[in-house]
Amino acid sequence: MQTLRYIIKRVLLAAVSLFVIVTLTFFLMNLMPGDPFMSEKATEENRAILIAKYGLDKPVHIQYLRYLENLLKGDMGTSYVLQKGRAVSDIIRESFSVSMQIGLKALGLAILVGLVLGCIAGLRKDKIADNIIRVFSSIGISMPSYVIASILLIVLAVNLNLLPISYKKSGGWVMPMITLAMYPACYLARLTRASILEVMNQDYLRTERAKGMSEFVVVFIHALKNSLIPVITYLAPLTAHILTGGFVAESVFNVPGLGRYFVSCISSRDYTMIMGITIFYSALIIVMNLICDILYKIVDPRIKFD
Amino acid sequence: MGNSNGVMLQVNDLAISFFTKKDEIQAVRGISYELNRGEVLGIVGESGSGKSVSSHAILRLTPDNGVVKSGEILFEGNDILKMDKKQMEKLRGDRISMIFQDPMTALDPLFTVEYQLNESLKKHTDLSKEQRHARMIELLDLVEINQPERRLRQYPHELSGGMRQRIMIAMALSCNPDILIADEPTTALDVTIQAQIIDLLKDLKERLGMAIIFITHDLGVVSDICDKIIVMYAGKVVEEGTSRQIFYEHTHPYTQGLLESVPEVDTPVEQRLKPIPGNPPDMSCLREGCAFAPRCPYAMSICAREDAPLIELDETHAAACWKLLKREEVPAV
Questions:
Q1: CATH (domain of A161)
Q2: How many structural domains is chain A composed of?
Q3: In chain A, what residues touch B119 (CB-CB under 8 Å)?
Q4: CB distance A300–B109 less than 8 Å?
Q5: Is the pLDDT confidence value at B74 over 90?
Q6: Looking at the complex, does the CB of residue A295 fall below 8 Å from at least one CB of chain B?
Q7: Mutation for A interface: B52, B94, B97, B119, most A CBs within 10 A
Q8: Which of A292, B65, B164, B282 has the most CB atoms lying inside 10 A of its own CB?
Q9: DSSP conformation letters of chain A
Q10: With an 8 Å Cβ cutoff, are A212 and B107 in contact?
Q11: Dihedral (Cα; B249, B254, B255, B259), 10-degree rounding
């Protein structure tokens, strides 16, 4: 009951946040010089017709109100430039399903690798394994993803000829997945390590040992569960980020996902796409945060919803 | 369990050091004592005297950078320090169990009381699920916790400090241990709760007949629960005797100082407490001679050069102080 009330409250709050985001984005976007049709090879007259057709000649606040009205009806408009004439919601649905397929795999990989490496490093502090993992994860965190993508391409696809360069061939998802998972896996490893080191000194683990519990129970039930709390907090933004696909990973490997639209819709001033993607991304982050908070509560009984 | 008075635990010449990058901290420097069946032993000393370290070593709970340098800890004749992992797991929580100083941090915050109590019972007994549940209720009754069914479902953060310590005690007693090690079990609690916990331990000892090692820095706390008391200073035993001997016939200047610094109910308000002057020694660079000598009002020249051995005063009473010897018995320097 308490949980339900909390969720309802959070959903209402989310609506307010989304409204603010929509408003800010809409006006900021209109402050940018240029318009969606500036690259059209058309005469001044034809451009003016296009602008009038989409209602872009009206004052900004009128455009804003009209956008809001349509949005409330569930209509995000059609793309002006990138896929001219197609409904924005269709484009997002289609490309997000591609991004999500790779994203879910990358997320699973990142969590698995991050937690396992973090645990090993934390439990073997200052031993060889810890040092190797620390060096590896530092490199993984500081390396930009286009470098990772290029190295993967050169080594796995070109030199070893293990994987196809094109996304469309079978196994084409492997390299984008690794590229996407690299940073979060390394970050998670470091986070888990720090968390485990902190938890390993806690009094309650000594109590567990004094009770005669095996080292396995002490570490993998009590220490691990406690050290997961800070990790869960990081999972919300991570999940949203990974699911929407990295711009770099999708561009380099030519994946028809949502990530590559992030930048291209802005540079082409595709207004409806900018709005649609911003709303979608924001909503995803908000939902992920809510899920994480509920997860948080499940793991840590000390958390109170109110 | 029985009433036989055999020696159950024997600590012989135990020495433990902690190693940091540059120093060796000699936390325990060769202590010996015996614990009989059903006996309550008090170990008293200030912070850093080695009282906790030495008793954690009984369950081999010394932190990783601590090394047992010498000595043996015999439990029913077997050296605990030589036991393997499996033997240790069987010993801990079953034959010897322990409660700790701070009940606020000693329970895992993410698991219910029931889960944590059940863990020990599952590990050490063959009871069925229903029997374990009944046993848990019985244990909570034993440590005088009301609404046991409800408490079992609660998490540690929903309980008060006193209640958590009672849970700790219930957990420690769950498998009828032969020895309960209580490491400053009341230090972190309110004074009124302190008294309740001491009374509870006293009562449980009468009813269950286990031996208790009671570690404290507060002589007042152990006065009427202990059969015998060991006073530790700088990692060594400076005086040992029955509770009566320590309180009324003490001979070591440190024991005297410790007793004089305890406030009493009938002390006039305007009278100031009598602290022991000076500070405890730095255990990473101990000087020659008696560690207490720099703070001792009776220090003689020999005290600065040579440490006094434990001198037996009678069958149960011994103290490590040169002034107990006649002038001609003190070694010439």
A1: 1.10.3720.10
A2: 1
A3: 208, 211, 213, 217
A4: yes
A5: yes
A6: no
A7: B119
A8: B164
A9: -HHHHHHHHHHHHHHHHHHHHHHHHHHHHHHSSS-TTTTS---HHHHHHHHHHTTTTS-HHHHHHHHHHHHHTT---B-SSTTTTSBHHHHHHHHHHHHHHHHHHHHHHHHHHHHHHHHHHHHTTTSHHHHHHHHHHHHHHHS-HHHHHHHHIIIIIIIS--S-SSTTSTTTTHHHHHHHHHHHHHHHHHHHHHHHHHHHT-HHHHHHHHTT--HHHIIIIIIHHHHHHHHHHHHHHHHHHHHT--HHHHHHTT--SSHHHHHHHHHTT-HHHHHHHHHHHHHHHHHHHHHHHHHHHHH-TT----
A10: no
A11: 110
CA distances from B168 to A218, B16, B107, B213, B265 (A): 17, 27, 8, 16, 31
* Nearest by CB: B61 against A206, A215, A302: A206
Q: Do A301 and B109 touch (CB under 8 A)?
A: yes
Q: What is the pLDDT of residues B237-288, one digit of tens each?
A: 999 999 999 999 999 999 999 888 877 777 777 777 788 888 888 888 888 8
Chain B residues touching residue A207 (CB < 8 angstroms): 100, 106-108, 168, 171
Q: Which residues of B161-187 are buried (b: 16+ CB within 10 A; e: fewer)?
A: ebbbbbbbbbbbbbbebbbbbbbbbbe
pTM flag (> 0.90): no
Structure tokens that stand for A36 in this block: 């969606």
Residue B235 makes CB contacts below 8 A (sequence gap 6+) with B15, B26, B27, B28, B29, B30, B31, B49, B50, B283, B291
Q: Which residues contact A207 (CB under 8 A, 6 or more apart)?
A: B100, B106, B107, B108, B168, B171
Rg (CA), chain A: 24
In a domain, A73, yes or no: no
A108 is a domain residue = yes
Alpha carbon B209 to chain centroid distance?
18
In a domain, A291, yes or no: no
Task: Number of A to B CB contacts under 8 A, please give it.
Answer: 73
A2 touches chain B (CB under 8 A): no
Contact B110 A225 (CB under 8 A): yes
Mean pLDDT of A259-278: 86
Q: What is the pLDDT of residues A221-250, one digit of tens each?
A: 999 999 998 888 888 878 877 877 678 888
End-to-end CA distance of chain A: 12
Interface contact flag, B106 A203, Cβ < 8 Å: yes
- Name residue B92's beta-bridge partners: B96
| Domain residue limits at A184 | 88-270
Kindly state whether residue A205 falls inside one of the protein's structural domains.
yes
Which residue from A102, A97, A76, A58 is spatially nearest to A271, judged by alpha carbons? A76
CB-based contact, B108 to chain A, within 8 Å: yes
- A residues 62..101 contacting B (CB < 8 A): none
